C-alpha cells in the first residue's frame, strides 16, 4: 500500500478509535515511516547511541563526540532488493510477512518456497502478524509513549501490507513469478497497465510483487494477477483476483479494532461501521500524480474528514532541524575532521528508538541471529554481503557486494572478471524501455561523448534497427551493439513525433542475434567480446580516456537465415556505403569507425566541457588505483578500498560513479530536458 493508506487511513482510524491528536499523528507517522526509512549504510552522528547499539556492535565511536551508526532500513529500495540479507530482514520482516518466522518455516519437513508467501492477517494461518500486533497493543496499554506508539504504527504498516501483498514473498524465487491479467481502475473506468508494461514487469527479478508492478497497492484497482502454483507451473495458473478497495476496507476494520483495544475504547457503541465505511471509501478513492502528491492528498482527505488535521514530514521526528539528506560514509579517523560537518547527522532519540525496534522486528521474523550478525560485520569490514539476481550474465563469476557493485548491477551491468570490463546484463532496466533517437540526444547528459550509428532495414513484418555506439562514457571507454525492432507501419505517438523519434522495442529472446566485436584505440586493441547471443552486447573499460574518433569497432553479426542477412546488407549497410564481408554462416563482418549518419548537435555544443569532467574523473581514478595498487576494475574491490583508504577527492569520485550509474538506469525520464 501507499501513503494513502499507511498515513491517511491510519491517522483517520486512530482518531476515530479515540486517540488524541498528537498520539494519532505519532501512530500514523511511524506507519508511513516504514516505507520512507531506507537508510542502510553507516551514518556519522553526534548523539551517543544507546547501549543497545554499542552492545550489539551496530555502532562505534570514531572521534570526539562522533559515532558511526549502522541504521536498519525498513523501506523498499530497488538496489537493496538485490541483496539477500536485505530481502530477509527488511522485505520479509516489514512488507511481506509470512505466516511464521523464516526459521520455523524452514524447520517444517517438506516446506516449499510457497510457504514464504505473505498471508493476510484475517487468514487463520497468520500467526506471526498477530503476535506482532499483540505485543504492540500491550505496549500501548501499559504506557502511551513515543516508543509504544511508534511500535504500534510500525506494526500497523505490516498488518496493512498483508492485505496488499498476500501471495507474494519478500524473497527471490518462483513463488513471486507473476503476470498481470487485469488492472482496471474503477475510478477512471480505464485499464491502467498496457501490454508493453505487463511484459516489462514480467521480465523483472521475482522479488516481492515486482512482476505485478504497483497494481497490488492501488486501492481503486480491480486486479487479476496470475501466479505460479508450484515451481513447475510455467503457465501461472494461480490467479489472485480481487477488488482492492473492498479488501482494503476489510483491512481498515481490522486495524480499527486493534486501535480501539490499544486506546481501550469501544467506538462501535458510538458509530455505525457501515456509515463510517462509506465515508472512508469515498476518501480512499482518489487519484494523484507524484508531483505534490502529499499536498493533494491532504486537501482531499480534509474535505472528507474536516475535523482531522493531516500533515506529514518524513524527516521531522528523526532528525534535528531541517537537515537535508546527507550521504552515508565509512569514514576513518584520519579523514574525520575533513568530513564531519558535511556528513554528520544530528538525530533525535526517536531515531534510535526506531532503529532498535527495526532490528528487533528483523530478529523476530528471521528467527535466527545468523542473518543479523552480518550487520555488525559491515562496520568492521565496510562490506555488504549480497547476491546477484538470476539474470546476471556473469553471476557465477561476479556478484555485487558493495554499494557501488549494487549500483552498477541495478543500472543493468556486471563486471567481467576475465576481461576486466563492465558489460550489460541480459534482462535489465534498459530492456524495459526500448530505444529511440531521443536517447542518443540525451546521452551527453550522463557524460557520454559517443558516436552512434543506427542501421535500419525491414524484415518479417518488422522495421529493425541495429544501432552501434563507441566513445567515452564518463570514467570509461566502451562500445555497444543493440538490436531493436517495431511493427512496420505502426503509427507514431505524439511524443515520438515531437521529441523521441521512432521508439523501437528491445527484441525478445527468440529474436536475439549472435554478436561479437573488437574495440581498438588508435589501432591498439582495448578489449574484445567473442560470439554471444544477446540483444545488447557491450563492453566498457574504466580508467581509459578517448575521443570517439580515436576508436574503431570491428564487429560481426550472425543472422538466422540468408534472407535477413541480405535485408540488413542491402537496405542498411549499402545505403550507408559501408564496406562489408559476408560469410557462409549468414554472418556479416564490417568496421564502425566514422559514423555515416548525422550525430546529435547537442553533443558538439557540450562536448568540450563534458570531456574535461571525464578527464578529471579518469585522472583521479587512475591515480587512486596506482596509489593503492588496486589490481582490477572490480566495483566491489574499488568500493572496499575507497571505504578503507580514500580521502575526500576519491570519495567525491565514488559519489560521481554512483550518480553516473543511477542516471544510466533512469535516462528515459530525463530525455525531454536534454533534447535540443
Shape descriptor reads: globular
Note the gap between the termini: 39 Å
Number of helices: 22
Indicate the mean pLDDT. Answer: 85
What does this molecule look like?
This protein is an alpha+beta fold. Helices cover about 40% and strands about 20% of the residues. Strands 11, 12, 13, 14 and 17 form a 5-stranded antiparallel beta sheet that branches. Helix 6 runs antiparallel to helix 7. The two termini are about 40 Å apart. Mean pLDDT is about 85; it is low at about 330-335, about 380-395 and about 670-675.
Q: Secondary-structure blueprint of this entry?
A:
Layout: H1 3-16, H2 21-36, E1 43-45, H3 51-55, E2 59-63, E3 66-69, H4 84-95, H5 102-107, H6 127-142, H7 146-164, E4 178-185, E5 190-191, H8 195-202, E6 221-227, E7 238-243, H9 244-263, H10 273-284, H11 293-304, H12 333-343, E8 344-345, H13 349-366, H14 373-381, H15 403-410, E9 413-416, E10 421-424, H16 437-442, E11 448-459, E12 462-473, E13 476-487, H17 494-500, E14 505-506, E15 513-521, E16 524-534, E17 536-542, E18 551-558, H18 562-573, E19 580-582, E20 587-592, H19 601-628, H20 635-645, H21 648-665, H22 671-674
Parallel strand pairs: 1-8
Antiparallel strand pairs: 1-3, 2-3, 4-5, 4-6, 6-7, 9-10, 11-12, 12-13, 13-14, 13-17, 15-16, 15-18, 18-20, 19-20
